[in-house]
Amino acid sequence: MTIIDMHCDALFKMQVAKRDSLYRKPLLNFTNAEELDTNFHRLQSGGVKVQFFAIFLHPELPSDEKWQHALEQVDLFHSEIIGMNPQMRHIARWQDIKELKEDEIGAVLTLEGAEPIGNDLAKLRHLYRLGVLSVGLTWNTANLCADGAGEPRGAGLTLLGKNVVHANNEQRILTDVSHLSEKAFWDVIELAEFPVASHSNARALCNHARNLTDEQAMEMFKRKAMVNVVFYPPFINENQERATIPDLIRHIDHFCSLGGLEHIGFGSDFDGIKLFTDSLKNAGDYPVLIDELQKHYSETEVEGFAYRNFLAHLPD
Q1: Mind telling me which SUPFAM superfamilies this protein's record contains (predicted)?
Q2: pTM of the model
């Protein structure tokens, strides 16, 4: 079955390896590197048709290095993922997804945290030109745009953050709420024309700040916005390092009970996690998840979770 996965951190992992290669460690080959949960062969064997690749920076990176690090990851996306794998196609505009050939896999650039742009909207516009189609304002901490889910202050959007959302709207770019504080989430919901939760679960089942409350989830569904479940065990089972696929499906069940049947998708967080749901350790394992879902939902409903819901929500 065709899969659309809205979040992975392969670019960060590849950048770390590239910098380590200066000290004679090997550069990761996106085609088949065992270290990459989302390498080309695994995407292919898992039936992934579109993979979103996040630009993510280590939170302790000095401010004056962040823009350069972001550009390095964009370069890896174009040179190592697209450039070295002819069947990987850069999705530069939403319409490109609908034009993928049977043997092609779409690759979408996203930004996880606006730290690279500082307070310079020209840098944001440059990222749009380089192909970024989804922007998350924060990771877990605070920056010049907003507070993240892990920031004790819990503040909302700054004026700069609001300007970023307006810019996203103008360019028909998704605004990702997955890492925002609750106050910032509600600020975004008031402004964003194209909100999305790229990788979040239900807080009612796992009380973690990275998950969505029922009120947040219902507001997303009311606005016909996608919520993509994440495969990281601590976001599935509270205070646990282990989870099973049935545990993950409980979150899908819960979101469906809130009216989300047509607004649920997948955001694995592969290559950004070191703990895995049982039998779901890389992109090649997607068929196992699909088989289990088909025990609980109809073929049409499972196709919705896998890809059809996302396609129905594409900015036109």
Answers
A1: Metallo-dependent hydrolases (SSF51556)
A2: 0.97
pLDDT digits (tens, 9 = 90+) for 129-145: 999 999 999 999 999 99
DSSP 205: T
Phi/psi for 25 (5° steps) reads -95, 150
| Residue 120 DSSP SS3 | coil
**Structure tokens, 198:** 């790229």
| Single-letter amino acid code for the residue at 166 | H
* CATH class of the 3-312 domain in this structure: alpha beta
CA–CA distance from 32 to each of 6, 50, 288 (Å)? 21, 17, 20
| Angstrom distance (rounded) from CA 216 to CA 201 | 11
Integer Cα distance of 8 and 228 in angstroms = 12
13 three-class SS = helix
| Backbone torsion region of residue 211, taken as left when φ is above 0, otherwise alpha when ψ lies between -120 and 50, otherwise beta | beta
Span 81-117, pLDDT tens digits: 999 999 999 999 999 999 999 999 999 999 999 999 9
SS3 96: helix
